[in-house]
Amino acid sequence: MERCAARPAAEEERRVRANAREYNEKFQYAVSEGGLNPFLGVLGQSNCIKTSKYNIVTFLPVNLFEQFQEVANTYFLFLLILQLIPQISSLSWFTTIVPLVLVLTITAVKDATDDYFRHKSDNQVNNRQSQVLIGGVLRQEQWMNVRVGDIIKLENNQFVAADLLLLSSSEPHGLCYIETAELDGETNMKVRQAIPVTVELGDTSQLAHFDGEVICEPPNNKLDKFGGTLYWKENKYPLSNQNMLLRGCVLRNTEWCFGLVIFAGPDTKLMQNSGRTKFKRTSIDRLMNTLVLWIFGFLVCMGVILAIGNAIWEHEVGVCFQIYLPWDEGVHSAFFSGFLSFWSYIIILNTVVPISLYVSVEVIRLGHSYFINWDKKMYCAKRRTPAEARTTTLNEELGQVEYIFSDKTGTLTQNIMVFSKCSVNGHSYGEVQDMLSHKAELGERSKPVDFSFNPLADPRFQFWDPSLLEAVKLGDLHVHEFFRLLSLCHTVMSEEKSEGELLYKAQSPDEGALVTAARNFGFVFRSRTPKTITVQELGQAVTYQLLAILDFNNIRKRMSVIVRSPEGKIRLYCKGADTILLERLHPVNQDLSSITADHLNEYAGEGLRTLVLAYKDLEESYYRDWSERLHRAGSAPEAREDHLARLYDEVEHDMMLLGATAIEDKLQQGVPETIAILTLANIKIWVLTGDKQETAVNIGYSCKMLTDDMTEVFVVTGHTVLEVREELRKAREKMMDASRSVCNGFSYQKKLSSKLTSVLEAIAGEYALVINGHSLAHALEADMEVEFLETACACKAVICCRVTPLQKAQVVELVKKYKKAVTLAIGDGANDVSMIKTAHIGVGISGQEGIQAVLASDYSFSQFKFLQRLLLVHGRWSYLRMCKFLCYFFYKNFAFTMVHFWFGFFCGFSAQTVYDQYFITLYNIVYTSLPVLAMGVFDQDVPEQRSMEYPKLYEPGQLNLLFNKREFFICIAQGIYTSILMFFIPYGIFADATRDDGAQLANYQSFAVTVATSLVIVVSVQIGLDTGFWTAINHFFIWGSLAAYFAILFTMHSDGLFRMFPNQFRFVGNAQSTLAQPTVWLTIALTTVVCIMPVVAFRFLKLDLKPELSDTVRYTQLVRKKQKAQHRCMRHAGRVGSRRSGYAFSHQEGFGELIMSGKNMRLSSLALSSFAPRPSTSWIESLRRKKGSEGSGAGSPGCAADKTLRI
């Protein structure tokens, strides 16, 4: 998003005084462009945002300026100006201006429509109403008029207008509840609390006299941190993130609250994390710009050659014919004649790049976008959500993706947590066993546990092991204490809508699942106040005094509460990561700890999210002393967090182990299979998540990104630059040491002679990298980013944890900067917007976390599994079609245009055209446009099932094999070869040919008709050869275009047009008389055969000697079809009642499904091996290695000796 305002200078700190607009205005926070707030009319703070690019005044000049930055548009404008000069123009101006205006208009309308919706969105946000306290009275103001230092009132379910310091609320102790889905993608409730000194400021009269001043950090993008101090009544009070309400949050379950505006508009943390909207262009677009410049240079060279020829001819020959061929007025020398001839030929030969190319490209892209929108296999019936292509410019880029950056929560997972297993006092619960004491499979499970004894149980909760409920009913003290801890140690809020109907609002779905589990097993969390927690334990209400909450953070990785029971006993309950808690247990827990660790390893191996539970009894005297020290540390002006951390660490030692929990974060359907298939397509997947490390790693195992078969998983957790650099260095050394032990000395020394990139690409084994957000901040610094990228790209999987939205974008930008690879980012929350905007392609999941990601995306759908079809089917086909379209287009236009070049040597370099101007105008618009459009929209090399079955088919797009500079020059060479034959074969035959009546056949118009007819037939046959998938539309367009050519040709040479326009259509009956001659048809046939046969021979030899993978797959299809036909014949001919043949067929089908899934095989069927796939494999692999060695970043590891082709 663009900022609506910019500050004059960078802030070092921010000073905000409540109810003092004049004081705050002098700092010019978020001043509008030009220094004047357009809405307020004064110099002041603006809370408006601006994402639009144009307004009514600037649209036309700015949009035209942007469009003429395209090389092609500038080129065609230049040609149009030349055609308006009569001395040099051989063609009418309308041949260029009509298509140019059409292209500019279509693009302008599309840009205007997009910007209209941006304006509409901006106005909707900026014009939201907010209650602002002005002069002691609450007034309705638009968001854009809210200023820094204002006090505003929020009501339940309202969006927060700016970043606010919470002053007071309707809830006790200044609490309020917010939902932060727009910020971090989490839909769970979070609690914020006003500082005690402002809690009583609950009415407008008190707030109107509030004149406190806040000194805090300058605007930044850190969503989870805030540091500042409130100065009021000669006292100072520390402020933290727990006191802040950020823009984008929604107030929930709170009747009202008041807040002081600290950051407004572009300074808010939401806007600081919103990446700037970037104009995305495909690699083919960039290549076409380069090719247009090259073609223009080639055009200039041809113009110079023909101009020199004209000057020489006029000087040597033309001067002798001045009586019959006088020079034009103003031409006094052969040199000046050559100069004018140069410009004339520039106009004539400009059709090597016709403007219809760009119109056709946009039409093809639009067609591909509609195919995505109409794909029923990407439609989610449950949510009634179809796939949507929100842009039409990036479709072929979908076929070239090498890196996917994915969010975790809501993208890979459903964000639904289920209490699955637990370990209590060394006994594991949750495994269901059959009668033989074997683990029961899912389909063999009995009914879930019956919780009907508990009227407060959640009916949606299911658990399959009845022994845990039996332990509760039998009074097992350890099990009771286990669930008591789960019902007390949390920050969940409870809402009782009606008697017995509880609704839990949890900060994380993990907490919600644990508290719900305790609820169903008889320990029901009923309510809380800031000082008490009420739990109904097996039907009896018990109220605990809440003495302290030791909250969770990423460093502690644990949470504790200290409560006083009704009997007066003080106890600390703690839950946290096993790596942290097991070290803090009392030594008497050693045996129990060992058993529990085994259970934890078992749960983690199943991809479950685990927590360890422990408790500790505290003496009254110790607690009082510790509580006093805690109070002093909480009010310390400096290093407050360090003091608190030391006190927390002190009390959380020598605890007694209770057990462990295991929660399943349900993956979306098809996620592991999708990741496996995309990996086989050589697409590298990085997970960038705001979740903690343990959670992300567990999901990595669940979705098969991480496996137990991996050589090693590197975890980078350093807190300083030196620590991070050392950990990355050790990871690279381990990978290279493994390569040294696997590869022989010669090959390794050979690798060492190349760059580090090549060494890392050739490593043996599979590795993964897990890095935390604080470590990633150092790894992304300028002096370490290359080391991080080299290490990460050498790993098969990369998981970045606890990353901010901006860090997600920085990781994507890093890969874009150093790797010549197409990137795709996919996410579902507002915290993914920056990443989606930064990547080459952004995909939004329309899930449970709002629509911000969808609105910022290029493509959207409802489930991650659809990404497989988007890339491997739609993306691959779009890339294939666009490449074939461009190759053919350049071929046919060079074949068409270069005839003028050869003709120039035989017409005195006079800039006379071979074809009449109507043929020149209609060639690219009518005669050859529709067949190539049909191929560009509908063509496919293999069916969609094969595209999914053989992921290796995706690799040519990643390697950019189908359209590059080499392929371009091959097309140009074929076009020039065709033009030579197209001109010289008819020219040679016509030199001595006669008509049926004995008259000379050769004349200008007959020659033009013959060459034009040969050209249309040759290019039509060529597109027939290029078309791999024939539809009725292809047939209609190809044969229809030929029919249209002959119909128009005969019409233009008819008597009727001559009578109506005698000056325009003078050659009456020429086409009819020319095409009535057998010699002409023999000439056309000979030209066609000579032009096409080399192409057919080359393709036949290539198919036989060096087939591509798609050729191999097509051949496999034919073999399978023949085998099926033979099986059908055998079944008809064999005995009808054979049980054996029926079983054999059934067996083949069942095993075939396993093979077709690609889980247990390489591309090694009998048909493929007989068709020699090895050359196809080797040239793709060699090209990939070559590309990797040229890149500046490290690539993904692969064994050089592995010559087989994985599918």
Tell me what you see in this structure.
GO terms for molecular function: ATP binding; ATP hydrolysis activity; magnesium ion binding; phosphatidylcholine flippase activity. The chain crosses the membrane at residues 91-109, 291-313, 333-359, 885-906, 918-938, 968-990, 1002-1025, 1032-1052, 1080-1101. Its EC number is 7.6.2.1. It is a single chain. With 1207 residues, the chain is of the alpha+beta class. Among the domains are: 48-139, no CATH class; 146-274, Calcium-transporting ATPase, cytoplasmic transduction domain A, CATH 2.70.150.10; 285-333, no CATH class; 420-431 and 449-633 and 644-665, Calcium-transporting ATPase, cytoplasmic domain N (3-Layer(aba) Sandwich). The chain contains 42 helices and 33 strands. The strands form six sheets. Strands 14-33-32-31-15-27-30-29-28 form a nine-stranded mixed sheet, with helices on both faces. It has a nine-stranded antiparallel sheet with strand order 17-16-26-25-24-23-22-21-20, with helices on both faces. The chain has a six-stranded antiparallel sheet with strand order 3-2-4-13-5-11. Helix 33 (965-992) packs antiparallel against helix 38 (1078-1105). The protein is elongated. 43% of the residues are buried.
